[in-house]
Amino acid sequence: MTRIAASPFPGDPPITPELVHDHNLTDEEYGRIIALLGRTPTFAELGIFSALWSEHCAYKHSRPVLKTFPTTGPQVVQGPGENAGVLRLPDGWAVAFKIESHNHPSAVEPYQGAATGVGGILRDVFTMGARPVALLNSLRFGPLDQARNRYLFAGVVKGVGDYGNCVGVPTLGGEVDFGPSYGGNPLVNAMCVGLLKERDLIKAAARGVGSVLLVVGARTGRDGIHGAAFASEELTHASEQRRPQVQVGDPFTEKLLLEASLALIQSGHIVAIQDMGAAGLISSSAEMAAKGGVGVEIDLSLVPTREPGMTPYEVLLSESQERMLVVAKPDRIAAAQAIAARWELTATPIGRVTDDGMYRAKWKDQVVVEIPGQRLIDDCPVYQPEATEDPEIAERRTAHPAPSTQHLAPGEALLTLLDHPPIASKRWVYEQYDSTVQAGTVLGPGGDAGVLRVPGADFGLAVTVDCNSRYVRLDPYEGGKAAVAEAARNIACTGARPLGITDCLNFGSPERPAVFHQFKESCRGIADACRALDTPVTGGNVSFYNESPAGAVDPTPVVGMVGLLSRVNRAVPSHARAIGDVVFVLGRTQAELGGSQFWEVVHGFVGGMPPRVDLGAERRLVDYLVTAADAGLLRSAHDCSQGGLGVALAEVAMRGPYDETGFGLDIDLTAYASPLAAHDLLFSESHGRAVVTCAPERATAVAALAQELGVPAQRVGTVGERGGTVRLLLRDATVLHTVDRLREVYFSSIDQRMGD
Amino acid sequence: MKRVAVLVFPGSNCDAETLAAARAAGSDAFFVWHRDTDLRQADVVILPGGFSYGDYLRSGAIARFSPAMGAVAEHARAGGTVLGICNGFQILCEAGLLPGGLMRNARQRFLSRPVWVRVEQTDTPFTCLYEPGEVLEIPVAHGDGRYVAEPGVAAELEATGRVVWRYVRDNPNGSTNHIAGVMSAGRNVVGIMPHPERRAAPALEGGGQDGARVFLSMEARHATQDVADVRAVDDRHLRV
How many whole angstroms separate alpha carbon A101 and alpha carbon A56? Predict the structure, then answer.
């Protein structure tokens, strides 16, 4: 067969070393490209390598580390490598879920950056044949006392909300944290959870020579070109000029695309479907071809465009949103087009599957791209960067706060913590997200984990996202373990059994040994915790280069977890529910204030050894919470995390923002963790703990089950009156506040800072 | 058994749960696509929530021109029963089938939370199973939920008993007279801003089913059975 070498398109710039560098390719990488092609690449080909060999698409720095994650188990239907991971549920159901970052776009255009992040993760889930039933998000910003951080925070929240609200997928949970390292580079991670029947699962592998590639949905414009490359470089002052590379979202079209895609998958007319996400058409088509072990040939002039005069380079690399690439059986094109038309979308044939293994793109008759398809994906270099801990961090870990001259009483410290934005209620945020659309919400945002019904089934799903970057920064291994452990506790507090995770690993530049050390060690922690808790990793996303002129962000490996609640009508909420109920503290409290909110907020000190995760104890606590909920023993269960036992007890008492008032609590801790001083006992962030309440007649059973399962359980008091007093009695101090005072501080903190 | 048409516009996103709530109440419910002009002998038409046509111009402003809306207007003129929920309420106002309109929330932001509404009128096809003055907990989720009407119109609504639901405890969006839902002069077209279909099944957040009777009322009205039998219908609903 005669090979037609690709030729430059009229008007393409000549390939110079500067142009190669502008495409974020090293000399060594460019050398590989020449060797692979046996000639100089065309401009379009250079763009393709730049996108597909970017960190964002190729994971060239992270792949060897990611391979160490546990990814198998009887519940795993689909592990890493597809658009989303899939886990098995009862009755033929399965759950597809994935988390992804949209940090860089959100840093320069918060509203659209965040909105399109939600759009992308929705498409990742519905391309598996799953209907999206829940969204979550994990957000990080600089402190709210700076106007720019407030602008970014407000813009991101509105962007997340407007997109998900319009598509009609409830936001069931999330986390928001604030810290100085995120000022120059906020983090915006979006997670989507979808339900499908396992038999309807579809994968993104092109099959069948002669099958036809259709582009479905929005027209292709010049937006978002090189978004993947942008995501793979550090943010600088010049990044503002990247604003035109931020895509613009249209959730209305997304909703139509969702319905059309699910209908196409159900119809049997198609063999594969892939979101045109990062690196657009090139990424989706090249990946589908490589996965199927076939070639493709595309005529770029057939792609419907928004504006005239677009070049092959632009059509291939555009990241215009709300587009799908579908591989249809050759005799079903008209039928597939009819389904798209039913949802008022076009489906345009642009190419076909070939048997020569080449990735070939033409413009009418001219070949502008011709690359061996498998090698385009496989030949990307893989790096094993150096990893060394920053000595300053090692020093910080052994440090202690300077002895304070002003001694804040525990009761005052509690109010300070409840007012601190990372701890305070996120009502201001989740009120902007529709959390009840689809009418399946059992527990919405504001608790430990969101819970939703599965239509027609007795079981439900619990969903959460978690990471405490303070711990990861101080001790990446323990911090990685802690992210998984906290997610599992949150899931288990609702009564659900943790099933598996997706992760979004947000770090600085992997080319810096100190950052790569954080990455490697926290992944080791995640892997160990996932093995101990039986929660395999089903996929995720790596986001490196989260750096601004002020430095790298704190290492933030966010864990998204799903759990199975065997009887959804037994879902356990996180707040107290009835006067006279008995309160237990589960787990052990030790003097572990390293990385705590107490030291950070009250002493202005970030350091110390973060609390260590005992994975055996975590496992026992999870088993206990699931068993107790299933037996109907618990009235509420709440995880102890940031702010320690003091904040956890206050949250149990305060109830939700729309309840007219909370409950008083009468708590006696004099016999619990007795050697500890008041501050240590109340604000230590030891892992493996939860506060549960139960009806008085169940207290004996609650304690007996704890003993049976090896979980320390201390009966510490009772739930008081509505609007009553929260009284925490310690050996050396007493905390005394009306619950309404606590509510006022906790629920208005962020509103006040945002000027409401 | 009533025939209930649930209209679907591109961008509707509460259509499935609205259909489910109507079916759970015992109705013969089906979807009608916005391009259809045949309502298929529907007794009741429901316009569900969502973002019809993306709501890019103004909530409900484009949907009112859709082919199906001509048929809905005819159905309403002939005395047929119509319910608009959230975006459906906005569309009915834009189409002139209900007085007034829905403007941006007073706090200028989308608002998703539970609210408490008092049932002010029980002589409607959607509230006849409630007690007068009963307070319901149901969620809102809207950016444009602030009901406004000319002073004369609002006064007339009050004087003629056409405010069907009213926010109590607090006014979440700044609505005139705390109005959460109204009806037409013919008392056959009703709009409500909160989402009763999200409180129509057990095990949901808050555990409430306060919205279920909106749908059960459709079946009960003009029925020959007495209230005790209707409760039986309610019980069946509880088991769905």
Answer: 10
Q: Which residue in B50, B109, B202 is closest to A432 by CB distance? A: B109
Q: Is the Cβ–Cβ distance between B86 and B101 less than 8 Å? A: no
A131 interfaces chain B, CB cutoff of 8 Å: no
pLDDT tens by residue, A420-443: 999 999 999 999 999 999 999 999
Please say if B195 is a catalytic residue.
yes
- Checking if the pLDDT of B223 tops 60, the result is no
- pLDDT of B234 reads 40
Distance CA B181, CA A140 (A): 39
Residue B161 identity (one-letter amino acid): G
In degrees rounded to 5, what are phi and psi of residue A730? Answer: -120, 170
Q: Extract the tokens encoding B134.
A: 């009963």
Confidence of residue A229 (pLDDT cuts 50, 70, 90): low
Predicted confidence at residue A240, as pLDDT, reads 65
**Contact across the interface for A439 and B141, Cβ inside 8 Å:** no
Total domains in chain B come to: 1
The distance of A342 to chain B (nearest Cα, Å) reads 10
Q: Which pLDDT does position A241 carry in this prediction?
A: 67
Q: What count of Cα atoms within 13 Å lies in the side-chain half-sphere of residue A151?
A: 8
Answer whether A569 sits within 8 Å of B202, measured CB to CB.
Answer: yes
- In chain B, whose CA is at the least distance from the CA of A456? B240
Q: How many helices (H) and strands (E) does chain A have?
A: 26, 28
Chain B partners within 8 Å of A438 (Cβ)? 16-17
Establish if A569 touches chain B: CB-CB under 8 angstroms: yes
Written as one letter, the residue type at B235 is: D
Structure tokens at A527: 């892997």
- Cβ distance A304 to A351 under 8 Å? no
The verdict on whether B86 is a catalytic residue reads yes
In SS3 terms, B58-84 reads as CCCCCHHHCHHHHHHHHHHHCCCEEEE
Rounded to whole angstroms, the Cα distance separating A138 from A464 reads 10
Is A333 within 8 Å of A348 (Cβ atoms)?
A: no
> CA A65 to CA A256: how far, in whole Å?
38
Q: Which residue of B has its CA nearest to A573?
A: B205
CB contact under 8 A, A252 and B10: yes
* Side-chain-side CA neighbours of residue B175 (13 Å): 30
Interface touch B111/A433, C-beta < 8 Å: no
- Output the domain CATH number for residue B106: 3.40.50.880
Among candidate residues A342, A256, A257, A351, the one with its CA nearest the CA of residue A312? A351
Task: Give this prediction's pTM.
Answer: 0.95
> CB distance A431–B195 less than 8 Å?
no
ipTM value, please give it: 0.93
Nearest CB among B51, B112, B169 relative to A436 is that of: B112
Q: Which residues of A are identified as catalytic?
A: 56, 102
Q: For residue B116, what are the domain limits?
A: 3-239
Task: Name the average pLDDT for chain A.
Answer: 94
**A627, amino acid identity:** T
Q: Which of B86, B120, B128, B219 is catalytic?
A: B86
Alpha carbon of residue A343 to chain centroid: 30
Residue A433's closest CA among A101, A161, A714? Answer: A161
The closest CB to that of B110, out of A255, A343, A432, belongs to A432
